[in-house]
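User: Predict structure, ligand adenosine-5'-triphosphate.
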Amino acid sequence: MSEGVTDSGSIPEKVATMATEKGLRGRLAKDRMATRVVSASGFMVIFFILAIFFVIAAEVFPLFQSPEVSLNKVIDIKAKGTVLAFATEEYKTIAYTVTSQGIFFQSLKGGNTWPPVALPDLDGARITSASTPQNHMVVLGLSDGRSLGVQIKFDISFNEKNERSVHPGADILDFVQLSESGRPIELIHHHVGDAGYMVTAVTGPNEVAVVQVKRKKNMMGVVRTKTQSHQFTLPNKGAITALAMDHELSAVYAGTESGQVIRLALPTDEIDSSAEIIGATPGKAVKITVLKFLKGGMTLILGDAEGRVISSQIMKGDDQRYHLSLVHGFESHAGAVRAIGPSHRDKGFVTTGDDGMVRYHFGTSGQTEYELDTGWKENIADLVMAPKGDGILALDGKGRLGHWTVSNPHPGITLRSLFGKVRYEGYENSEYSWQSTGGTDEFEPKFSLTPLIFGTLKGTLYAMLFAAPLALFAAFYSSQFMHDSLVHLVKPTVEFMAALPSVVLGFFAALWLAPRVEELLPSLLMMPLVIGLLVVVVQYIAEHTDLRFYFKEKPATEFYFLLILVLIGTGLALGLGIWFESVLLQGDFRVWLLDAAGLGYDQRNSLVVGMAMGFAVIPIIFTIAEDSLSSVPKLLSAGSLALGATRWQTAVRVVLPTASPGIFSALMIGFGRAVGETMIVLMATGNTPIMDLSAFSGFRALSANIAVELPEAPEGGTLFRILFLAALLLFLFTFVVNSIAEWVRLKLREKYRVL
Amino acid sequence: MEPAKPMKGEIRSFLSQKEGNEGKLSDTDHTGNSSEQGTSNRVMVNIDHVNFYYGEKQVLIDVCMEIPEGMITAYIGPSGCGKSTLLRCLNRMNDLVDGARLEGKVEIAGEDIYDTRLEVSDLRKRVGLVFQKSNPFPKSIYENIAYGPRIHGVNRKDELDAIVEKSLKSAALWDEVKDRLPESALGMSGGQQQRLCIARAIAVEPEVLLMDEPCSALDPVATAKIEDLMVGLKEHYTIVLVTHNMQQAARVSDHTGFLLLGKLVEFEPTKALFTNPRQQETEDYITGRFG
Ligand SMILES: Nc1ncnc2c1ncn2[C@@H]1O[C@H](COP(=O)(O)OP(=O)(O)OP(=O)(O)O)[C@@H](O)[C@H]1O
Ligand SMILES: [Mg+2]
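Assistant: Predicted complex:
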């Protein structure tokens, strides 16, 4: 490219010198250019890796952000009478308050006012109690022993400007006689089921009435109701102070003055009713003030007069008896618990007590995530969580309504719930569990990454157990002993294996390999043993006969001879394995496995994954190890051979240590590949996130988990971010492994540096 | 290929003349730098009509030579004439080269070393080789020396210690390295490394020590050390030396063979060859008139 070259033959010397100078300058410029381009590319690579890291970390970060709570406003509601219950509509535009005087609406945005619900003639009775609204249905307890169901409605309409406006209204449902004696209803509770609702109320010192109201619309649109009422007497444990009902409408739970929880099983066609004490608040007898089920009806929260907040589960013991199993104690209030407001979306709930504090707890994790002080002390009357979980509404006895806005998009996510053991609903013990979605939206998601990390490590372990010895021995053999003519054949073939898409390997493993392995496992396990033994025996024979001179003269033939041995060994192992299985393993190794070792056998198991992933990893390990073994200077091995060392001694004592940095890198890069491998683990395991080391069971790896669940994870949701966390873990994992590997490799290279 | 016949005859006659005179080889009358020796100078290595090929290419042409025991025999000749090849034929290092082939016979101590029943590793234990470029293993100084004895089954620490000390002393390296035996051999100077390789070779106590230009990469001081070393070693070992340095050949060797294009042109006691070469090519070469 230098300019002087074209006609340098004829130009005067001076010009020629200039030209060379010019050429030199050109070369230097090119050199600088190249340096810059190379270093710029290097920085770009580092930049992009860091950028990816930060993007992933930024997606993960909100998971661990602390919740933000701010007071939106305090409104004076225009309700008369004592507050009995209240609730808000989905969009937090309207709240309704149930008082001793009726049901009143209140705009939370200001402006609109609506008339109170027009209640029917109560025949002179007063409203003495109200149940917690559920699906905007509320049941009023009356002073004459009756109850009245009211369904609040919110009609939504849009005006010409497409603005949304909500108009509250109400349907009056049924009067039901709860107390035969006409005793005022002071404590009432209801739950809406599939075909109606059930009301329970305290009708005497130890008396409880339960009424089931079945509502059916006939074809004319006329509602027919059928009521069925029962009176029950509970064990005498002091006055009943709290009521709850399970969501199947099969039992009523009552909390007493003495801190006992009584389970009242409702009669069905098969069983009679029964009432038994299933548990109590811990320690001394403290009055239970509130009983509330969390969403899903599995976890029962107890609030007592000392301000304690305890979550519990109703477990059925081996003796078919129920007992209350206390799970978490949450941060207590300084006064008696006044109200508990479960979240409508998850296992979170808010509590308040006579101290005027409002605390948000999460049932799954047992954590109290945030709190706020209303300053209302014992004036506080009731509180609810906004239906979308983005607000808290509290009401005091003086008609003040506080509205707090909450931003807590990922409740219940802590390092402990992500990595530790958690006691989930319906479980006797704390466990590591991953189960992100369930059949219903009442499902409690289980987000423990531990089984996935375990799965990744397990898959990697089995892949490396399979691949590392094969690849390393192959590399060792082909670099040190195999005849050159064969090496030229074998190396490209193995390298070609690396080009196999892992989806093909996974597909092959799942559909072809897994059934074969299941069929021939004993034979398969015997193969390395039988082949190894055969080779050793034949080698011994060869060593002591004239055969060895034959191989010495024709070194390439030993490979074919070995190949034949391997084939014979495979055949032998097949036959032996089948024989072994039929004679010693009761004809089916799976039965034997279960009997003798207590291990189950999944068709798509770790062994199959190990083999399939081994195939993906072998070419990488082989190629890098082979290269580093064959790049050990010939002068070095010649030095050893010249001392009278055999080829084996030379290979093991000189070549191997010298190539060890390369072999180490080969293993580490193979390891990294196995950790990140997705398609094979996805297809060749059952993807069950269990934690056991058995080779015959499956697992779920972090990478496969991301692939499986990403379609189900709405952007920005908790699952979405946890999947990013899984990605971050994979990233960090490979990063740490590679860094350690590089460090060790450099140390080794320093040690086995060759001039 | 034609001049091969008379040359061979000549060497034969030289040796038979010796045999005729005293019944065994003795060079007392020819080499001044070799001390008066009463030791028996029987033939250690007998190279008998050797032709050597790398694939199709013939590199050695009908070489015949008898190397006497307990002396230093040097090969000189222009680059590419086959000195190294001839040397490597003596411990079958050429076996490692694909397609290498030897015709003729090589006997060491009366044994045909190309017999298929012979274990090459046994042969190489008896015939050590020091390479042109030093090639210490990436191990400690101690382990470098102990490597040979270890592979031949010596594992006792005290025995190994003794061998290491003795070998390093024979290689005139002991004083320099005795305090740093566990350190990597790669931290030594070039001359020390070469002497380490010599020590490593003699640690397995070979009968014959082959040295392929052991001083080519060394400065005069290191060269002098190694030359002294060779002279000292010949008491116990038969040494065959390849060198480009004619002064070196003259200084240390007892016999010198001159190779040219794969043929052994002349093989004489060193003094005779340098002072009174019989062949024109030899004279041209040693007087520097030869490319
Ligand atoms: N491994 C080999 N394969 C093919 N040809 C070879 C090989 N080694 C050496 N040769 C050839 O054999 C001939 C002799 O080589 P050799 O190394 O014996 O020469 P030399 O006399 O030792 O030369 P130098 O003084 O340069 O070391 C040369 O022409 C060389 O090209
Ligand atoms: Mg040479």
